[in-house]
Amino acid sequence: MKTKIMSAEEAASFINDGDNVGFSGFTPAGCPKVVPAALARRAKAEHEAGRPFAIGMFTGASTGDRLDGELARANAIKFRTPYQSNKDLRKLINSAGTQYFDMHLSMLAQELRYGFLGPVDVAIVEAADVTEDGQIVPTSGVGILPTICRLAKKIIVELNDKHPKAIRGIHDLTEPLDPPYRKELPIYSPSDRIGLPYIQVDPEKIVAIVHTSEPNDEGDFAPLDDVTKAIGDNVARFLADELKSGRIPKEFLPIQSGVGNVANAVLGSLGDNEVIPPFDIYTEVIQDSVIALMKKGRVRFASGCSLSVSRSAIQDVYSHLDFFRDKLLLRPVEYSNSPEIVRRLGTITINTALEADIFGNINSTHVNGTRMMNGLGGSGDFTRNAYISIFTTPSTAKDGKVSAFVPMVSHLDHSEHSVKVIVTEYGVADLRGLSPRQRARCIIDNCVHPDYRPLLNQYLERGIEGQTPQDLDNCFAFHKAAVEKGDMRMTEYTEK
Ligand code: 0RQ
After folding, report:
1. What number of helices (H) and strands (E) belong to the chain?
2. Which of 203, 234, 394, 396 has the fewest Cβ atoms surrounding its Cβ within 10 A?
């Protein structure tokens, strides 16, 4: 392997214009950093010389700024899938500067194997260790690493010494067989291991090893405010009541929680709730709050696809590997987000909506039905298969000018059939077993901001017949007011 050690620039020269490149990691955790940045510099130089240079990108989920950000700013992305959350890439997507294909995270690895998305020419992976015989130990995020390493013709390894070799053992890495030979994925409890602590590749395919010492991008959490704290407390109270009523077994059930401030607040409140016993996490993204709850004995075990934690939390984990080793496990995304496993374990899923309608449909991705925010991520993998699927959202956005609740969502990601509970700072709408009219009443009375309740009540009272009283002339009146007047509170309905 020593002969393959080279600079990021030299490694980037293995990638050609038009190549499809797979990247390891999930969120900034575990993503390569220096080779993508070198690739972006190369793309800029090629463009300046009047030559085209753009790649197709397969990732586990969002990445870091040194990957998505650099390549977007260099205008070097031909197409990209799946989830992203980088502001420059978002700009490129919404100006049609790249083709973005949003998909359920659990499905990407298998669709690559099925050949639906073209070849993987090169895999660029971050590793804590690589051995002469081709064992690769990932770092703090896995994503689609096993699949891209197997499919790629060439593998470039970023060997990052910010992650100790002793991390070996924290991963559980494997790939399922494909149809018609697929069998069950035999995970019956979040801590079950079914793979190896490394992936085995043909060492001949490793064309470059680049040494780095780059930390992951820091995820910054806003301190809890009244709204996020109230949402967290409402979720915790709801789940504690479900437990007391016997609708959740007394042992409790594994929790999945999305990314961001609300998700972190929800986990904090669950950890503080005295009725809820110590619990397990079966999720994609393990955030800071999980590490803190583990130290307090409130989280027993966490299985995820990445440790998307602050630099201080990752240091904490690495300095106390003896404590965390039997409490943490990182899997490929097709296992962490597997619909089969999520349903078998009875996972309680908690994700954040961008917008909901009063009948219980959820938009997670598109502002005003047009502009992509981030993407679907794993929210669909978990929601559709949950024991109880919960969506959280502040009741308003943009200083109250946007209501999170509208008559009809402007884009549909999760339908009324998959959404069981919606929670805001005002309360909990438990939609289980309710008809569309009952759901609308329940959501307006429990979740909607008081400024918008009269407008949504008026909408319901427009005398529309049928199972779901949508008024086709006015179902987007809220969005029209946002676009034309900049404030949904100025919504006007047309006369009948
Ligand atoms: O924008 O910061 O410019 O004001 O959206 O909103 O409230 O900070 O919440 O960071 O949790 O993001 C749905 C985008 C929420 C995210 C979404 C504006 C709001 C703000 C962010 P500003 P908040 P969050 C696990 C599961 C889909 C994927 C998923 C997401 C910005 O949670 O991408 O669930 N989810 N994955 O002002 C216009 C509205 C708005 C709005 C909020 N209705 N209209 N703007 N905003 N509501 C993760 C993975 O899969 C990896």
Report:
1. 17, 26
2. 203
Which CATH number do you get for residue 450?
A: 3.40.1080.10
Domain boundary, last residue among 183, 212, 241: 212
pLDDT tens for each residue of 325-365: 999 999 999 999 999 999 999 999 999 999 999 999 999 99
Whether 409 is in a domain gets the answer: yes
Please check the confidence at residue 110 and state whether its pLDDT lies above 80. Answer: yes
Annotated binding site for CoA: 258-262, 374, 378, 398
The pLDDT assigned to 259 comes to 82
pLDDT at 61 over 70: yes
Q: Are residues 259 and 145 in the same domain?
A: no
Please check whether residues 397 and 480 belong to one and the same domain. Answer: yes
Tell whether 96 and 159 lie within a shared domain.
yes
For residues 78 and 175, state if they share a domain. yes
Give the position, in ligand 1's atom list, of the atom nearest the Cα of 260.
11
Q: What is the pLDDT of residue 219?
A: 65
The predicted model scores a pTM of 0.97
250 and 273 part of one domain: yes
Q: Are strands 405-406 and 285-286 parallel, antiparallel or unpaired?
A: unpaired
| CA dist., res. 199 & res. 453, Å (int) | 54
Residue 118 lies in a domain: yes
Domain hosting residue 46, numbered range: 2-212
Which of 354, 395, 403, 422, when mutated, tests ligand 1's pocket best, judged by the most ligand atoms within 8 Å of its CB? 354
Do 203 and 340 share a domain, yes or no? no
**Contact in structure between 418 and 384 (CB atoms under 8 Å):** yes
CA 438 to each of CA 79, 354, 363, 429: distance values in angstroms, whole numbers, following the listed order:
43, 22, 20, 11
State whether the beta carbon of 262 lies less than 6 angstroms from ligand 1: yes
425 is catalytic: no
Q: How far is the CA of 354 from the centre of ligand 1 (A)?
A: 5
Domain for residue 386, yes or no? yes
pLDDT tens per residue, range 213-259: 998 887 656 677 899 999 999 999 999 999 999 999 999 999 999 88
Does this complex have an ipTM over 0.85? yes
Separation CA 333–CA 348 (nearest Å)? 18
How many domains, in total, are found in the chain? 2
Residue 220 maps to a domain: no
Is the separation of the CB atoms in 354 and 377 below 8 Å?
no
What per-residue confidence (pLDDT) applies to 2?
Answer: 87
C-alpha to C-alpha distance for 255 and 260, rounded to whole angstroms: 16
